[in-house]
Structure formats: structure tokens, C-alpha cells
Design brief:
Distance between the termini: 47 Å
Number of helices: 13
Helix content: 55-70%
Largest sheet: 3 strands, antiparallel
């Protein structure tokens, strides 16, 4: 991990995909063959300290995008499946631009394949739509910089759940995983409420720029936070959960919870 993303040792990837006895030499030949790759090599390959048999050494690494670019320059049967997959992904992206509903259907299918229940997926997909509506509203109101988005999201989360997104991920034992993919039904519902409320407040109060939208974000999050606390009092249980789906799919955990309740009954 480097800068919160996966990086790969270039010489190792080339070695696996080419079976070359001299992968370093293969990389030099590859750069000579592919002039454009050679021109951008400084942006693709980054020397990182890697643990080796001889201790830590600076070795050229590339992130996922960089590795895919390198693979495109490898004329090897082992590289061909990656090239076909990249072509397929590119084709699907073009299809989704022409028909955005395809993206929704594919996302739905991915969640089903990961073991999520239909009920959970419906909430997750609705949550994505609500969040998209909020970010679109922010853009119209002058929020353009990434740090501002992160601050506003943290403001909503803190008011709604008492935790910032980073604190929430830490509670659930997550690293780079998407927080909402590991939320329970109630957590998703209150997330939707906080963002829908923020969107509506920003519109009604015509919030402009970062300071005014930060106030709206706090108010929207607090509406969800107040509702969450009232529910917790009624059911005598916390909504915020440390539960995640890293090792066990959501559907399996749901069945486990039902089984536990039936045994208690």
C-alpha cells in the first residue's frame, strides 16, 4: 500500500506474464519498442522501498492504472486475458454512457454476486441515488474542491452517527473498503435520511458556497442523528454497528441473525 492504493513491483508482473529469465532486460526492450510508454515512464514507474531477501530496496512500482498500461505493451499469451478484459471494461463504459441504466443493473448484479440480499441492495441503490442528488446539489452551489466534499461529508456523518467516516471505518475494521458496503439496513436508512435532509435544506435555504453548505450539512445530519437516538431509546439498542461483511456476506449474516433469534424464541 502506498498513498492509500495498491502498487505492484513492475519487474515481478513482467516476470509472471512473460516467463522471461531476464525481466529487467525485457522491460528495457519493451520501452524501446513502445515509444509512448517510454515517454510516460516517469509517471508510471515510481521507486518504492520494498522488502526483499536482501533487505529493503528501492524498486520500480506502478499503481493499477500504470500496470494495465504496461500489460498493454506485453505481447504474451499470458497478458492477452488482461487485454481482453480491459477492452471489455472499456466497451461497457461506453455502453453505460449511452444508457446509464446499464450501470445500475450491473452494480445490482455485482452486489448479488457478493452475497447481499435483495432488500439490502434496494436500500444501497436508493442510497446511491440520494447521494448523487446531494453531490449534484453541492456542485450547483459552488462546492467544487475535493477537500470541501470530504469536510461536508464528515459534518453530516458526525451529526448523524457521532462519527466521522474515517472513525466509522475504523470502528468496522475497514481500510480501503467502501463504508456503505458494510452498513446494516438501519445504518443505510439513516445515511439516506441525513443526505436527503441536507439536500432539501440546502435548496430551501439557497445555501451558497462552502460555509453556508456546511451549516446545511450539520442540520441535515442532526435531523438523522436525532431520529437515530430516539429509535435507540425505543429499541434499547445502538444503530451504529461494528459489523462488517469482510469475511461473511451480508446475506449469510442476516440468516445467522434470524437463526439466533429463532433459537432464543
Amino acid at each position: 500500500m502506498h498513498n492509500d492504493e495498491w502498487w505492484f513491483v513492475v519487474v515481478d508482473v513482467v516476470s509472471v506474464l512473460t516467463d522471461s529469465i531476464n525481466p529487467s532486460g525485457y522491460i528495457k526492450d519493451m520501452r524501446r519498442r513502445d515509444v509512448e510508454l517510454a515517454k510516460g515512464w516517469g509517471q508510471i514507474a515510481t521507486p518504492l522501498a520494498i522488502e526483499t531477501i536482501g533487505g529493503k530496496q528501492k524498486i520500480n512500482c506502478a499503481n493499477t492504472e500504470g500496470i494495465f498500461r504496461i500489460i498493454q505493451s506485453i505481447p504474451s499469451p499470458k497478458a492477452e486475458p488482461f487485454k481482453r478484459w480491459l477492452a471489455k471494461v472499456g466497451f461497457e463504459c461506453v455502453q453505460e454512457i449511452e444508457d446509464p441504466e446499464l450501470a445500475t443493473r450491473r452494480t445490482n448484479a455485482i452486489y448479488r454476486a457478493k452475497g447481499y440480499t435483495v432488500a439490502w441492495i434496494e436500500k444501497r441503490m436508493r442510497g446511491i441515488a440520494v447521494r448523487t442528488g446531494l453531490t449534484d446539489e453541492w456542485k450547483r452551489r459552488g462546492i467544487t474542491e475535493h477537500p470541501e466534499y470530504a469536510i461536508l461529508e464528515a459534518e453530516i456523518s458526525k451529526a448523524a452517527f457521532g462519527l466521522t467516516p474515517s472513525e466509522y471505518k475504523e470502528l468496522k475494521g475497514l481500510q480501503r473498503e467502501n463504508l456503505r458496503d458494510h452498513m446494516t439496513d438501519l445504518e443505510l436508512i439513516f445515511s439516506m435520511l441525513s443526505e436527503a435532509a441536507t439536500t432539501e435544506i440546502a435548496r430551501k435555504q439557497d445555501a451558497q458556497g462552502f460555509p453556508e453548505n456546511k451549516v446545511a450539512a450539520h442540520k441535515g445530519g442532526k435531523i438523522a442523528g436525532d431520529a437515530r437516538m430516539k429509535l435507540e431509546i425505543e429499541v434499547e439498542a445502538k444503530v451504529v454497528s461494528s459489523e462488517n461483511y469482510l469475511t461473511e456476506p451480508e446475506g449469510h449474516k442476516r440468516l445467522s441473525r434470524k437463526s439466533e433469534k429463532s433459537h432464543e424464541f
